[in-house]
Every structure is written in structure tokens, then in C-alpha cells.
Specification:
Length: 340
């Protein structure tokens, strides 16, 4: 047995879900089984050539993911990654916000060891559960020599944290890496790689990481969508200090607009976003299209998200507001995930 260990951190999700009927893949409760239980019943684990440790970090349906749970996950990742006897981490996670957690961890940690998020589209109780295979595949990726960075493994495909996106509501192969394509495939424990492992071009200094892990409240960044008949009313309400005060919310520090097509937006929405910018709110445009990145030939008053989806652009902006309160990096970067 190899000396270095893998740690599996459990956070809940459908992979730990249970339904009353084994034929029911939809009407289940997520986050019911502990990560230790998932490993105990994992066929093939006895043949896995490394010692596997487990730790339950959270037990939630990932639709309810929040900053405090991200901070807990971050702190436990830091703890385990620092240990010399740990080869890599696997994180069991719900599919709904997996891409946000993956991007958050990659942006903050830029780990030189692998951190592999995995999930399932069917509950553990299902007659056709996909979780056990995904978990075995994730362990194989975490144990792979040279593997590094935060990736997601689902349905035999390895996706990079920056590109991975849930694109289907119930299909087992629910994730895509869009135009960029996946990092590779994993077939019965063997990896077939077509791209390099994730590596962030911006590596956060340790004090920034500590700050992110400990901050009591994070900057408020909201997402708005452009659509037919959109007006500026929602933006004006979001930016209004009076409204924030009345509802007991923190003032909005940033807005991401999920724009139409190649970054276009309703003129009324755009006018309201300009007013928001004038009031000191950071604004970035992503696209509501599933594929493709916003591509402008000239600089725009509202910078684009450099290919990040709206939800990931929001994570980037939150981190930026924490680490660079005075200056915006987003919109000036060319690509915040380089390759080896
Ligand atoms: N709602 C579940 C979750 O994200 C969905 C899943 O895991 O597939 O936790």
C-alpha cells in the first residue's frame, strides 16, 4: 500500500441521498448518509491501493450552500493539504452548486495537490445509483501522480474548476466544460488526459487566504438577468441604501449581469447599471448563454467576466472585494486559470 493517504470530505448532496423506493430517483432527501457510510459500502475500495480517511465537514443539500460552509470546507482543505502524508482530497458534494464551490476553492487555494469534487445525480438508495462509480473515479484521480488543482469528476469525465458547469437537470452526465472541453476521462481507474491540470495565474498570499477563511460577513454581490421587458427597477432597488436599511441587508457592493447573447442587455437595465457604477458599485457582464464567452473588440464601460459564468463571476468579485477592495482585477485579466 502507498504511504500517502487520501481524505474524503463529506458535505452531503444527492450522493448521500436516500429515497423511500429504490426505483425513485427524483423524490429523495439529499444529505442523509454520512461520508463514512458511503465509503464503508463502496464496492472496490478494498482493492484501492491507498489508505482512505473520511471527515464529515457539512451535511447539506448543496442548493443551500453558504459562505460559512465554504469557509469551513476551506479551513479543512487547508488543514489536510498541509500534511505531508496526504496525497490529495476528495469532496463529496451536491451537484447544484458544485461548480461554485470548485471555483471558489481553486481561486483561493490554487492547490498543488489534487482536490477532487464528486457527486451523483441519483440517490445512494437508487437501484441505479451513480455515486459509487463517481466516488471510485474521484479516488483514482486524487491518487494519480501529477494530479493537481481543483477538478470535478462525474460520469467518468474530469472537468477543471473554471470551466465545469451543470448543464442538465437529471441526466447522469450532467456536467460540461463547454468550448474548452474536459481535462480527461477516467475509465476503470485509468486516466486518459487531454488537457493540463488547473493552475491559477493569481496565487493568493497566505494573509488573504486567512482573511477569506475567517471573515464574519462577505461583501454582498447580486446577479441580475437581462431579458425582454427588463427594466432598471430591480437594480435601483438593489443599490438603494434606504431599501437595504429597511430590509436589514448589507449594501450591495457588486452586481453581475447575466446579459443576453454576446453581452448585450436591455437599454433600461444598462442605464440602471451605469447609475449603479456611478454610485460606486462594481459591475461585470457575463452571458446567460450556456456556451461561449463574451467577446468585445473594444473596452466596454461594463467589463466582461473573461469567460466566467455569472455564478463564478460573482465568486470572483466577492474574493476581489475582500482582497482588493480598491481595485478591480476582473475585467482586466485575460484568463485567470493558466495551464502548466
Ligand atoms: N439538490 C442536490 C444537491 O445539490 C442535487 C444533487 O446533488 O444532485 O445537493
Amino acid at each position: 500500500m502507498d504511504r500517502k493517504k487520501i481524505v474524503v470530505l463529506g458535505t452531503g448532496g444527492t450522493i448521500a441521498g436516500v429515497s423511500v423506493q429504490i426505483s425513485d430517483n427524483l423524490g429523495y432527501a439529499a444529505a442523509q448518509l454520512g461520508v463514512h457510510e458511503l465509503l464503508q459500502t463502496l464496492p472496490g475500495l478494498a482493492q484501492f491501493p491507498r489508505e482512505v480517511l473520511t471527515e464529515q465537514v457539512a451535511q447539506i443539500d448543496s442548493k443551500d450552500m453558504d459562505f460559512s460552509i465554504w469557509q469551513r470546507i476551506l479551513r479543512r482543505c487547508i488543514h489536510w493539504l498541509e500534511r505531508d502524508d496526504i496525497q490529495g482530497l476528495v469532496l463529496t458534494h451536491g451537484t447544484d452548486t458544485l461548480e461554485e464551490t470548485a471555483y471558489f476553492l481553486q481561486s483561493v487555494l490554487s492547490p498543488t495537490k489534487p482536490v477532487v469534487l464528486t457527486c451523483a445525480m441519483r440517490p445512494a438508495s437508487s437501484i441505479g445509483a451513480d455515486g459509487p462509480q463517481n466516488l471510485m473515479d474521484a479516488l483514482a484521480v486524487a491518487a494519480h501522480p501529477g494530479a493537481r488543482g481543483v477538478v470535478a469528476v462525474c460520469a467518468g469525465t474530469i472537468h477543471g474548476a473554471r470551466d465545469v458547469q451543470k448543464v442538465h437537470t437529471w441526466r447522469l452526465d450532467a456536467f460540461s466544460s463547454g468550448d474548452v472541453g474536459p481535462i480527461g476521462q477516467v475509465v476503470q481507474g485509468t486516466l486518459y488526459l487531454s488537457r493540463n491540470w488547473p493552475k491559477s495565474s493569481v496565487v493568493l498570499p497566505k494573509p488573504d487566504i486567512k482573511k477569506i477563511a475567517a471573515l464574519a460577513s462577505w461583501p454582498r454581490v447580486e446577479i441580475v438577468v437581462s431579458y425582454a421587458g427588463a427594466s432598471g427597477a430591480t437594480i435601483d432597488a438593489l443599490v438603494s441604501p434606504e431599501v437595504a436599511h429597511r430590509i436589514g441587508a448589507a449594501p450591495v457592493r457588486g452586481l453581475i449581469v447575466a446579459a443576453t447573447g454576446n453581452g448585450s442587455m436591455h437599454h433600461e437595465l444598462e442605464a440602471a447599471l451605469s447609475r449603479a457604477q456611478a454610485a460606486g458599485v462594481r459591475v461585470v457582464r457575463a452571458t446567460r448563454c450556456c456556451h461561449g464567452q463574451v467577446a468585445y473588440a473594444t473596452e466596454q464601460a461594463i467589463p466582461d467576466s473573461q469567460g466566467l459564468s455569472a455564478v463564478k463571476a460573482r465568486v470572483a468579485m466577492i474574493l476581489e472585494l475582500i482582497t482588493q477592495p480598491k481595485d478591480s482585477r476582473l475585467g482586466k485579466m485575460t484568463h485567470n486559470e493558466a495551464e502548466d
